[in-house]
């Protein structure tokens, strides 16, 4: 199921990039779909066997991808609504960078508990 979802998200990202004029909204949508696909790929590699990275590396990558979803969603809402106040999306990206930094730099920022068997 993870691989099917990954394929759908990648196909939708490519289609959106190819089909629609590149505006701020389409760029955000493509990045959202890529982050969702990246999370699916990371989740698959954590659960089914690591390709290129170890399980912890894939878990960190998954956390990074999923951490970007809320600020991207908020930014998308602001772009669609035409709201000119930019401090809320900027605040969202700032919090995302703080969390991503923690996941990457803290010794136990991400713990991978994999139950195999």
Characteristic terms for this protein:
117 residues; mainly alpha; 5 helices; membrane; transmembrane; transmembrane helix
Order of helices and strands: HHHHH
List unreliable stretches of 5+ residues.
Answer: none
Strand count, sense and barrel status of the largest sheet are: none
Overall residue-averaged pLDDT value: 88
- What is the global morphology? flat
Q: Which bin fits the share of residues in helices?
A: over 70%
Portion in strands = under 5%
Radius of gyration: 16 Å
* Count of discrete alpha- or pi-helical segments spanning 4 or more residues: 5
Q: What structural class do helix, strand and pairing data support?
A: mainly alpha
Total beta strands: 0
Transmembrane segments: 20-41, 61-78, 90-110
Keywords: Membrane, Transmembrane, Transmembrane helix
Summarize the structure.
With 117 residues, this protein is mainly α.
SSE layout and pairing:
Layout: H1 2-19, H2 24-48, H3 55-67, H4 69-81, H5 87-105
Helix pairs in contact: 1-2, 2-3, 2-4, 3-5, 4-5
């Amino acid at each position: 199921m993870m691989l099917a979802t990954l394929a759908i998200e990648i196909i939708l990202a490519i289609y959106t990039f190819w089909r629609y004029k590149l505006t701020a909204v389409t760029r955000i949508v493509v990045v959202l779909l890529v982050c969702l696909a990246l999370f699916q790929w990371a989740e698959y590699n954590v659960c089914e066997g690591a390709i290129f990275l170890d399980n912890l590396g894939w878990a960190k990558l998954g956390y990074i991808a999923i951490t970007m979803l809320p600020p991207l969603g908020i930014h998308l809402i602001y772009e669609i609504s035409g709201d000119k106040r930019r401090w809320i999306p900027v605040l969202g990206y700032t919090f995302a960078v703080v969390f991503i930094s923690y996941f990457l730099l803290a010794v136990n920022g991400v713990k991978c508990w994999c139950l195999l068997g």
